[in-house]
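Exercise 3.2. Students should predict the tertiary structure of the chain below and write it as structure tokens, then compare their answer with the key that follows.

Predict this chain's 3D structure.
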Amino acid sequence: MPRPRFLDPTDRGLSQLGQEILPVLYRHRLLTAGQLTQLLRPSATSTRYIRRQLEVLHGRGLVNASIRRTSRAGELLWYTTALGCEVVESGGELAPRAYRMTEDAAASQLQEHTLAVNDMGLAFVQHARRLSDECGPLDWDPEVAHRVRDGDSRLGDEAFLVPDSVLRYIHTTPTGDGSQQRMLLTFFCEIDRATMSIARLAAKLHAYARYARYIPQPALGRGRPKAGGYRREAWRARYPSFPRILLVLDGASPSQLAKRTDDLRALAAADARLQPAADLQAGVTTLEQLRIHGPFAPIVTPVLGDPEPTDVLLRPSATATSVA
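Answer key:
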């Protein structure tokens, strides 16, 4: 997959690598030099060159850094400044996002969650390279809002589903006639670092089930729906097929994460609201397993049904779309 390039090489005197770094930081909010190296220069044996480019970007006021809260060595976490965001948005290659990383946000307790989301995306990218699939540094998008309820947008969580990230991946498999089949897989990804209650995780599953069935109704007059309304689910306007749901656990011992998986499955099985959506492909794994084995190994425990870990994310289903 071509490397991301969004700025003219002469713009602000940036090198090619500097131009690649900026949109990746803009999209993913907060990254370490190590994560950037693995995303953009995976053959490099150190982070030295990436760090040098980050210093150049910092000198031009395009990026800033915060110290990682959990690092005794003072590891820096990098993000785009307001000026850096403007430069990326002026290129027109990425959809503008209202969110802006600030100095306070970069230093907050959200650090580890943001880094874990990016570690998840990085695992997909690394295994795509190994499998000759397609998933690049810009193929996951954090916190994309999806409406799941008509009415007042001020209802917040009640009106919108916001996955931690939406990730797109093209998987290639050989066919019997010697050609290849390319399959677009889209994932709704949730990262839990053992900080969210199991009940809240289960509630997120219910929100996904509700989004799968949500058919928006246009308002007429004082909030009354127009007769007949729409007849198609809202997700069909955004996705060729309904995304697979991947819950990734981290932040505790393997035994504790296994218990959280069991508890989540128990709550899901007892939730009558989920049963009409039992055909959703939803699974849970750990960030460590994802890093080591990749997303398509038998490491994913289905949330509903058989508890045996499988390669469920790769199995053909209605949630996969063939591409040319």
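Discussion points: Residues 111-131 form the longest helix (21 residues). Confidence is low (pLDDT under 50) at residues 1-10.
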